[in-house]
Write a structure and sequence with these properties.
Layout (H helix, E strand, L loop, with lengths): L2 H23 L7 H27 L7 H28 L8 H22 L1
């Protein structure tokens, strides 16, 4: 099951790099400085948490007694990417301010994902 998160993490890294390049080369001339800053935040968090998913998947083998927590860690990081980075991507290019209400939910998912990984490690030791 966690092997799938190696795929998910890798594809999210691919997407983050592609979206970062798209923003730097295509959007930079059409968006305002504030919109670019929002877009760059989305890319940064996307990439860090995609790497986090890969890390969780790689650590899964060393935390077998806590596999549910490890699995939820990966799931929550992925949900965070979708909600946090996804809402910021759309907000930056569309200007839909109501999407700003979704962003903190993604941030909470990131926090919960990292907490679940910490709890899995504590349980192991």
């Amino acid at each position: 099951m966690l092997r799938n998160y190696v795929i998910i993490g890798s594809l999210n890294m691919l997407a983050a790099v592609g979206l970062g390049a798209f923003g730097a080369h295509i959007l930079k001339s059409t968006l305002t400085a504030s919109q670019i800053a929002t877009y760059e935040t989305a890319v940064q968090y996307h990439m860090v948490h995609a790497f986090g998913i890969l890390l969780v998947a790689l650590l899964a083998g060393s935390l077998p007694s806590s596999s549910r927590k490890v699995l939820w860690s990966a799931r929550l990081l992925w949900i965070g990417i979708i909600l946090f980075s996804g809402s910021l991507y759309i907000l930056s290019v569309s200007g839909l301010k109501m999407l700003g209400a979704i962003t903190p939910i993604g941030g909470v998912a990131f926090l919960a994902g990292w907490l679940m990984l910490a709890l899995a490690a504590v349980r192991k030791s």
